[in-house]
Design a protein that fits this description.
single chain, alpha+beta, conserved putative lor/sdh protein from methanococcus maripaludis s2 fold, Elongation Factor Tu (Ef-tu), domain 3, OB fold (Dihydrolipoamide Acetyltransferase, E2P), six-stranded mixed sheet, 28% helix
Amino acid sequence: MRYSSLKLSMALPLLLSGLLNWPLLVAAEFEEYTAPVNYTEARQHTLRPTIKLPGTIQSRHRSIIGSETEGIVVALHVREGESVAKGASIAELRTDALQQRLNAAQSQLDAIRASRELASRSLDRARPLFEKKSLSEQQVDELESELLRLQADEQRLEAEIAGIRLSIEHSHIRAPFDGLIVKRLTDIGEWRDAGDPVVELISISDLEIDVAVPIGYFDNLNASEAASVSFPSVSEQRYELAVTAVVPVADSDARSFTVKLRLHNDPPQAQLAVGMLADVWLSIGATSSTIIVPKDAIVRRLQERFLVVLSDDNLTRIVVVQTGHSIGDWIEVFDAVAAGDRVVVRGNERLEAGQRVDPTALDYSLP
């Protein structure tokens, strides 16, 4: 029992000494701790101001294909959603009556040609006889008149046959351009007059994007600059498309004017469809040189936005900023940092001013 008391009396001073020194040990450990962060340098960048607007894919060729002649539909070679090449047969009208007229006219033409050849030979034989006074001038004139009449009948029948053949050709309704059948507007057995609709056809390789731009941007729109376009329903990938037209007529209700972008879809891609929405970034105003930082460097607290900037000895400095235009993963900032300043992009949410950090560089692709 005395031995146990002795051990306790010897251990107590050591325990008390450890407790008294504990704050010093914690403080020393805290002083040595540096928060790991990632940083990227602010960059000087030539900025092209843009506005983001919705656009809609449209076909540059959208037609209601009609019949050029009349007749009953005897064949319809296409279905809705089917692709057709220029010149491909879409539908056929009955041509029995036209074929009969063609055969009859061809028979008449053959007879007229035979008669015209006979009249020509008769005139050739009559002219020497007229010179010998064996035939009168009136008889020769009659032969010449008959030949001219037959020649006129021949030309008339040739024109009639050409017209019948053209009608037969028009009875085969063909695609005027490469496209996609949107809707069938007739069916087998229906009568079509000349001009009646047969199918609706759109081009899916020659597309454009229509963008309604607020009228306030009309004077500042830089139509010579390519527009950046993405299709959110497909991917976030961006494409550079040329502005092909600015329609200087404002919509009185929407107070906007139309800008058109050319979209070549050749060969056609299944994921792009007429009527699909697009995000469009149009250039407005003149380009300028500015400072940009990654969007990840911006910290938001209540109504303020600030950056955490690192000094040469890796101490933090809090800088309130005003932001401007976004450019991909980067954003414009004003009067806050200079090109080359290191701004924290990871681990910046909980940092305080004057805190020492352990920084590692993190690369961002420039816009």
